[in-house]
Amino acid sequence: MSNPVIPAADLVMEGSQIVSLRTAGVGETRGRVVDLSGRYVMPTLINPHVHIGYMRDGVGDPAHYSKDNVLDHLRRFAYYGVSVVQSLGTDREGTELDLRDQQRAGSLDDPELSTLLTAGTGLVAPTPGSSNGSARFATDVVNEVTDPDSARAVVRKLAADRVDVIKFWIDSRGGSKVKMPPAVYRAIIDQAHKERLRVIAHIYDLEDAKGVIRAGADGTAHLVRDPGHDDELISLLLERDAFVFTSLGIQRAAVVGPALLDDPFLAETVPDSARSFLRERMKTASTAQLGHLRRVYETLRREVAAFSSAGVRLVLSADTGVAAQFPGFAEHFELESMVDAGMRPLGAINSGTEQSARVLGIGRERGTLAPGKRADFLVLDADPLADIRNTRRIRDVYLGGHRLDRPAMRSTWTG
Ligand SMILES: [Zn+2]
Question: pTM for the full model?
Fold first, then answer.
């Protein structure tokens, strides 16, 4: 693992690319120089797990979904130095696919937007007489599949739409939903690989995690809930070189509670009125609920510590757009949660930059600071390796060599 954080240097750019990182004032003379003396530089964050377009003022609802809201979220990610996000199965009316294509073709040429990748719509088993087990706000847009043939047909259709990844949900949502049978998810995984697409499985249970990894899924969208992992799962993950998305912050946010909303870093993009409303809503959790949330979070912490020391590929995932996972803020909160679970700051940053770029298949252009890579980086006032919360001490964000006008962006949200 290369050290992603470089103190006291100059970063030299040409166009949208990095030419070199040099000792201050020494070497390379062509290109534009960013003086980093007294500062720290790290690659921008890359989050392969978001559900965008639904959240407005902290409330996720299908009624809030619009193309403008998707664009607003991409702008919020950029503001916080999250340069690439992948929408994981909850797109509406092809909005994200269209935007991704426009970004790729250069017809949506806005340097203050995060780059979008997308799974389009995910696959899930129907629950007779009830909504299915996908994200609560998107049960009407996902693909319900009941047998291997219908599953293969959906995957073929998604591949024809040129999605970036295939996503399916398997868990029972606390026993309230029908689980997808193994024969169906095996067909999804097999067909996706025939189409040369990676597959990510939403799982919560240990046996489901083992089942999807045995069937060849490239990774899981979550850690295992109760009763937690076992050694066999670790062996399977290592053997198959499968990745695990951390998705810790969404659980930890519930444990932290309303105090999360007092964070000045969040207040930069979420106005007082919205945070007051949410504070009241978060206070309603009962003591029993809180106890349960804490126990689950402790299970996840232990799992991250065990996976991390065993060498399992942990990838930053913030499940952004769900619950209190605010675009851009959630990714920094995830880094903090990973360190809270026992990872070193260097490992957490690596899993949200180099590792997440690799999982998205964009590791050649992004994810590290090196000559020839895209000039996507954060300039920080303090060392994030000394304290992971220093990723929030943002002096500047550069995307493709463009320095974002963050004060102007901020004023559109919070005046
Ligand atoms: Zn998710």
Answer: 0.96
Q: Is 384's pLDDT higher than 90? A: yes
Cα 339 to ligand 1 centroid, rounded to whole Å? 21
Decide the pairing of beta strands 9-14 and 32-35: antiparallel
CA of 322 to the centre of ligand 1 (A): 7
Helices (H) and strands (E) in the chain, counts: 14, 20
Position 4 scores a pLDDT of: 64
pLDDT in the model for residue 6 = 66
H or E, element range at 11: strand 9-14
Q: Which of 178-192, 234-248, 265-279 has the lowest mean pLDDT?
A: 265-279
The residues whose Cβ lies within 5 A of ligand 1, an ion, are 319
Query: Residue 377 belongs to what H/E stretch?
Result: strand 377-380
- Angle among Cα 126, 128, 134 to the nearest 5 degrees reads 35
Q: Ligand 1: distance of its center to the CA of 383 in Å?
A: 30
Averaged over 258-279, what is the pLDDT? 92
Report how far ligand 1's centroid is from the alpha carbon of 123 (Å). 13
What architecture (CATH level 2) is domain 43-118+222-365? Alpha-Beta Barrel (3.20)
Residue 101: count other Cβ atoms within 10 Å of its Cβ: 15
pLDDT of residue 288: 81
60/390 Cα distance (integer angstroms): 29
Q: Any idea where the domains of the chain sit in the sequence?
A: 43-118+222-365
**Are 181 and 125 a contacting pair, CB within 8 Å?**
yes
d(CA 101, CA 161): 11
Ligand 1 centroid distance, CA of 12 (Å) = 37
What is residue 270's predicted lDDT score, i.e. its pLDDT?
95
User: What pLDDT score was predicted for residue 80?
Assistant: 98
Phi and psi at residue 169, in whole multiples of 5°?
Answer: -110, 140
